[in-house]
UniProtKB/TrEMBL annotation:
Source superkingdom: Bacteria
Flavoprotein as UniProt keyword: no
Species this protein is from: Planomonospora parontospora
Protein name in UniProt: FAD-binding domain-containing protein
SUPFAM superfamilies assigned: FAD-linked reductases, C-terminal domain, FAD/NAD(P)-binding domain
Taxonomy of the source species: Bacteria, Bacillati, Actinomycetota, Actinomycetes, Streptosporangiales
């Protein structure tokens, strides 16, 4: 289950930092979306729940802040008080951590799909909305050339790979690896996940998601010009 909310609080770390804390199962993500004095912090809390996920299609179910905070009661760091952030929200909402299997086809005659309708994926890597924007760019580019089929040829394989990567936690797999290799904690990350391994995980996800600098610089423009 995922819970999300926003809270005004003191800036943490650099004041512009995004943090992901957890062990691959239970997780807390936070980052500022408004700065200047007290920061407006966007946060997402995640943990597994027993039983069937309620109402898979509803992303706006009101959640109980006290219940969320109970699951993160001891998550206090020198630079961020997680239960305090949760308690400081005016409201929170819950939705299940679900995706859809990759579709074998998006386009039917003159109708096609994009965004979550085409490739609903786990919210890993802060990448879902970006893929919908890319869909729109490629679709406009293809339509400007009168070639609707080209849109699916370009986008469906790419988003299928990303859907499957997100099921394996994408770049966030480093949290799972750290927990498995050093469940009692550690003082030096190099002894647990060496830099080369961390860099390799990040680079692989960038390639899959399509935002590795080299591939971006080599890709033709998707400007929709006639």
């Amino acid at each position: 289950m995922l819970w999300r909310g926003t809270t005004y609080g003191e800036p943490f770390l650099t004041g512009r930092s995004m943090i992901m804390a957890g062990d691959g199962t239970q997780k807390f993500v936070a980052y500022p979306i408004e700065t200047g004095g007290r920061a407006l912090i966007n946060w997402i809390a995640e943990r597994p729940l027993d039983g069937e996920a309620p109402d898979r299609g509803n992303w706006n179910r009101p959640a109980d802040l006290a219940e969320i905070g109970r699951h993160f009661a001891d998550w206090r760091f020198d630079w961020l008080d997680v239960p305090g952030v949760i308690a400081g929200a005016e409201a929170a909402y819950e939705y299940p951590m679900v995706d859809r299997d990759p579709l074998p086809r998006w386009t039917f005659d003159g109708v096609t799909l994009l965004g979550d309708a085409a490739h609903a994926m786990y919210p890993i890597g802060s990448n879902g909305a970006s893929q919908a924007i890319i869909d729109a760019r490629v679709l406009a580019h293809s339509l400007a050339r009168g070639d609707l089929a080209a849109y699916e040829v370009l986008r469906r394989p790419a988003t299928t790979a990303l859907q499957l990567s997100n099921r394996e936690m994408g770049p966030e797999v480093v949290m799972k690896l750290a927990h498995e290799r050093a469940p009692g904690g550690f003082n030096d990350i190099e002894q647990v996940i060496p830099y080369a391994e961390r860099a390799g995980i990040a680079a692989a996800y960038k390639r899959t998601a399509g935002f590795a600098p080299a591939s971006l610089n080599e890709r033709p423009s998707w400007n929709a010009t006639r």
